[in-house]
Amino acid sequence: MSKPTQQAVAASHVFDGTTVHRNAAVVIEGERITALLPRADLARNIEVQDLSDGLWLAPGFIDIQVNGGGDVLFNDDPTPQGIAAIAAAHRKFGTTSLLPTLITDSAEKMQAALNAVQAACATQPSVLGIHLEGPFISPERPGVHAVRHIRAPTSADLAMLAGARAGSMLITLAPEQVPPGCIRQLVASGIRVSLGHSVATYQQTRTAFSEGLTGLTHMFNAMPTLLGRKPGPIAAVLESPGVWFSIIVDGAHVDPAMLRLALRGVARPMLITDAMPPVGGDRRSFSLYGEEISVTDGRCLRKDGTLAGAVLDMASAVRHCMRMADVPLERALTFASVNPAEFMGVGARLGRLAPGFRADLVAFEPENVRIVRTWVAGQS
Ligand SMILES: [Zn+2]
Hints:
Layout: E1 6-15, E2 20-29, E3 32-38, E4 47-50, E5 56-59, E6 61-66, E7 68-69, E8 72-73, H1 80-91, E9 95-103, H2 107-123, E10 129-133, H3 155-163, E11 168-173, H4 182-188, E12 192-195, H5 202-210, E13 215-216, H6 232-238, E14 244-247, H7 256-263, E15 268-271, E16 285-288, E17 291-296, E18 299-301, E19 307-310, H8 314-325, H9 329-335, H10 338-343, E20 361-365, E21 370-375
Parallel strand pairs: 1-4, 1-5, 6-9, 9-10, 10-11, 11-12, 12-13, 13-14, 14-15
Antiparallel strand pairs: 1-2, 2-3, 5-20, 7-8, 16-17, 17-18, 18-19, 20-21
Helix pairs in contact: 1-2, 5-6, 8-9
This protein binds zinc ion.
Residues 133, 143, 196-197, 218, 222 line the site of zinc ion.
């Protein structure tokens, strides 16, 4: 076997997931990073791509909630081709790993989605696994999820999920809607479990943590709000350092003041897009469960005004975080890379620029997070 080709990418600012290195280079062999070193220390014979002055290089973005993109909705096209179209649309905005996300649907659709992701994972390095948002959620907080498909898990569901080989798996559920032991069983199968579309109390949330639940899906949306005598899931999460929460920072789903409040907690934030087909696509409307959803003023709205996912991309989420919540760029970047990688249990191979990690990189202008180039597994 021939030696994998060696290349280097150099930039004036290289953020490795923790620290900014000035005038540094990432050395890549095949699909992996082998070194991060000063530009001046590169071997003379190595092929170097020098990024223009001022550009930053950082770990590629990891988006754990992507319903669609490039005019494709995963629920409508649960195939490897559909997933490829969605991944290509998001890559333009710096996303190098994602979880195609199936919103509440029939058992047959879930099986089709699992099969499609299993096939896609084998050939598309940017497909990390799958996120099943529902159907084991609360009919009291459905958002746009079809109430007719919301249900409690059966033993057949649990067996199907435990047997699935669809990469890294995440399921969003309402702890109060599933039988005791269900979360523990899912976690024992290697599945990440996140609370969402739920009316769980503070105590029910704490009990779910003790069963292995480690996430909260789209903080503040589709869950009980913070109240003085009813702290609910939000307070339980914000005081727990071993828990991650995702948040949609598009200016529509969460007020900047609430975002700043959430960032004062000790739980670890993750940026998600909750993206719908118009992201990276040409059309301004799409169909969900046969109903028309249109994009108005940067929001995806059902006719009754319910938010139906987002028209958000990861680069914009990072930029909004800086502008709306005064988050330093480096910290915002960790919300889009290190944190989701660690949440999904892949923090030893994704989310950082360090030897041994997969060469997933994003080059961008730091002022506005405009993406210039991406690399996935060493390929740009
Ligand atoms: Zn949701």
